[in-house]
Specification:
- The complex is a heterodimer of chains A (115) and B (115).
- Chain A is mainly beta and 115 residues long.
- Helix content of chain A is 0%, strand content 50%.
- With 115 residues, chain B is mainly beta.
- Chain B is built from no helices and eleven strands.
- Chain B is globular, with a radius of gyration of 13 Å.
- Classes of the chains: A mainly beta (115), B mainly beta (115).
- At the A-B interface, strand 5, strand 6 and strand 11 of A face strand 5, strand 9 and strand 10 of B.
């Protein structure tokens, strides 16, 4: 069965600092991987997705993630944090169940950005 | 990106009543829709998958008679919580995909409170 582990339920960075949110996956087939952002009482917005093309994936709002098969990781990064980046971030995996849209989510990481 | 709209955004109902939540794909035909449930400060848990014109497939542990899902058209799926109880209070989110697309687009969610 596919699964995702997000290390760190809460990450705090200063404005302008590097953002690193960790995600490790488990899948019996080559996975599709996603990062979503959720603001309070809102749905999920897709930041980026990996679909077996380039291993370095660039997304919206300056975020990017690198797929590392050897490490089974798909960490999310942003060079310089902005106050508006404060939100909940979810890593998700798909593909193991025969459909590329049935997502299994990690437990989420709350990003706090301080002045 | 594609737009998925949920209605209502929030609803309060009395215990024992039924509540219907709509999920619409506004600019594409959603061959598959997914319904998730999210408890406070937790991740999204898939409840069921629905394909247009066929019965929904429920995840293990989800009561199909309590959470009725209908996907009668390519742009609309509904989730009806029957005989709601306070423990059904949660954030419900739908997502939709078209064809064999990788990933899915999410609605903004519905906050259900049962009193």
């Amino acid at each position: 069965a596919q699964s995702v582990t997000q290390l760190g339920s809460h990450v705090s960075v200063s404005e302008g600092a590097l953002v690193l949110l960790r995600c490790n996956y488990s899948s019996s087939v080559p996975p599709y991987l996603f990062w979503y952002v959720q603001y309070p009482n809102q749905g999920l917005q897709l930041l980026l997705k990996y679909t077996s093309a380039a291993t370095l994936v660039k997304g919206i709002n300056g975020f990017e993630a690198e797929f590392k098969k050897s490490e089974t990781s798909f960490h999310l990064t942003k060079p310089s944090a902005h106050m508006s980046d404060a939100a909940e971030y979810f890593c998700a995996v798909a593909g193991d169940t025969g459909t590329a849209s049935k997502l299994t989510f990690g437990t989420g990481t709350r990003l706090q950005v301080t002045l | 990106g594609a737009v998925v709209s949920q209605h209502p955004s929030w609803v309060i109902c009395k215990s024992g009543t039924s509540v219907k939540i709509e999920c619409r794909s506004l600019d594409f035909q959603a061959t598959t829709m997914f319904w998730y449930r999210q408890f406070p400060k937790q991740s999204l848990m898939l409840m069921a998958t629905s394909n247009e014109g066929s019965k929904a497939t429920y995840e293990q542990g989800v009561e199909k008679d309590k959470f009725l899902i209908n996907h009668a058209s390519l742009t609309l799926s509904t989730l009806t919580v029957t005989s709601a109880h306070p423990e059904d209070s949660s954030f419900y989110i739908c997502s939709a995909r078209w064809g064999q697309a990788i990933g899915a687009f999410f609605g903004q969610g519905t906050r259900l409170t049962v009193v």
